[in-house]
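Appendix B. Worked example

We walk through a single record from start to finish. Start with the input: the chain for Esterase-like activity of phytase family protein, Pseudomonas weihenstephanensis, length 326.
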Amino acid sequence: MRRALLALLLLGATPVPAQTWPELVLQSEHPVEGMRGANLSGLAMCQGEMWAVSDRDDDQIYRLDTRYPEWLANEVSINVPAPPESGLPWGVRMMGKAIAPLRGGDLDFEGITCDAAGNRYVVSESYAAVLMVTPQGNASWLKIDSGLVRQARASGMLLHFNALFEGIAVNPQGNQIWLAAERERRGLLTVRKKQSVWDCEDGCVIMSEAGPEQPPVQLKAKPQSKDFSDLALFDAKLFTLERMAYRICRRTPSTGEVERCWSFAQDALTDARRYTSAYGNAEALSIDDKGAWVGVDNGNHVRADGEKRPVVWRFAAPQGGWSAKP
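Next comes the structure step. The output line below is what the pipeline stores for this chain.
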């Protein structure tokens, strides 16, 4: 009886006002020209070159020419084999197939990362699978133990269509991958490479949580589910891009515990940069010692200033660097 009463109270709970975090400072913004499907959904700096993916394109990734204020996306074709069975239930998989002709893009690429050898890893949301693209351009799906999806679902993640894996990070050695489950519930998972198979070792699930998130006051929006929209690994720490909160958080890789967060709402939500949508649009994240690259997936929305292309923002690193203590 007490548990039932507690559950009812939690369901009707009013979200606690968002904590005030230090604001990152916007240094520059770069519209991206030439993405066939637009919808920039992932960014990664690989051996000095910026790479991107679109969740509308199945047969290519993009190398970004960043020499000028307006960036140019150069198509890099990839020959993608048939995706593997990941353990997703039939209903979730069929929903993805049904929406693909309308959305464009069956694989729904949602994140990209790379190891020190230059291999790029791309996560497919609709198949809960990871594609590896070698520096030579050869593409193959990683053999991931089905325990990954099974454990995620047992923890309340990956239960809903279009709320699956949304971000990916890999360590420089290329033998450990972290994945971010998007929402309802959101969470962090990891797999390690054992010869040719990636498995859960001591368990895949690092953290799992649910609950409402109060958007920044500029949006004047109702609370939304907590979410992750991308991951980055820098200086042995995980960084999560939290779309609805307009926030980047540094987390402990082994537990997912929040160590510190930074907001980017102040510069991202100026009148000129606002979209008519009442939800966050930041989808892509790359971190380095000097700052953060944040990619905006505007979908079909036009910004208040008329900008229709995807945009990448450059934020300066916080005072004291990303490793600074609160």
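Two observations about the output. The first strand starts at residue 26 and ends at 33. The two ends are 41 Å apart (CA to CA).
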